[in-house]
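Figure 3 (text version): structure tokens given as input.
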């Protein structure tokens, strides 16, 4: 890369550390590349049981067997898809902004490698209307194209200017996995509660 050439730094090609397994794989790659495989494996052996125990309940409730649609930059979308697949989610649609010819390391019902925003919106809307409690993870442009007003969404990717965090909310690494699981779970819970008590999506500004 340009940065490595300018600084003389060593370039290690690795995927994004999303989810738990994705993070452990990333650590193993770095360990092998830097001659620290033993340290990386020791950390993983210690962290893995604790990490999986911590997220087990939320994963079972909010991921296993649930429908997801992901539409954001290609590299991020693939990384998020890997996380959803790791936790047993069903990927109904994968929208890859910018396009890519990369192989998918997981199953996705529909993959949009190159499409217009109108095409993406139509695909998301169509699937949302024929899916059980779907959730969309996407950037602002993807979210804005959806014609389903009560579809639960988790903003992720560039641009997501409508989301602001006053505290650390990572999405990479072990802390990022916890943060994403938390955001997705809370988004699903809010939608279920609003439908249960109000019969539709709840907008507190209308009270």
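Below: residues designed for each position.
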């Amino acid at each position: 890369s340009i940065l490595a050439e300018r600084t003389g730094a060593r370039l290690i090609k690795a995927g994004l550390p999303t989810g738990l397994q994705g993070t452990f794989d990333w650590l193993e790659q770095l360990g092998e590349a830097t001659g620290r495989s033993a340290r990386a494996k020791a950390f993983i052996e210690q962290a893995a049981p604790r990490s999986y125990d911590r997220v087990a309940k939320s994963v079972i409730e909010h991921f296993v067997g649930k429908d997801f649609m992901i539409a954001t930059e290609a590299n991020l979308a693939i990384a998020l898809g890997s996380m959803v697949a790791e936790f047993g989610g069903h990927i109904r649609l994968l929208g890859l902004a910018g396009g890519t010819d990369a192989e998918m390391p997981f199953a996705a019902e529909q993959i949009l490698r190159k499409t217009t925003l109108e095409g993406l919106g139509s695909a998301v809307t169509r699937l949302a209307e024929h899916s059980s409690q779907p959730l969309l993870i996407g950037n602002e442009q993807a979210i804005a194209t959806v014609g389903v007003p009560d579809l639960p969404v988790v903003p992720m990717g560039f641009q997501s200017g409508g989301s602001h965090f006053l505290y650390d909310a990572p999405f990479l690494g072990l802390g990022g996995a916890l943060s994403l699981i938390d955001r997705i779970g809370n988004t699903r819970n809010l939608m279920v509660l609003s439908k249960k008590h109000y019969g539709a999506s709840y907008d507190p500004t209308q009270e």
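Helices lie at 2-7, 19-34, 37-62, 74-86, 117-129, 140-144, 173-198.
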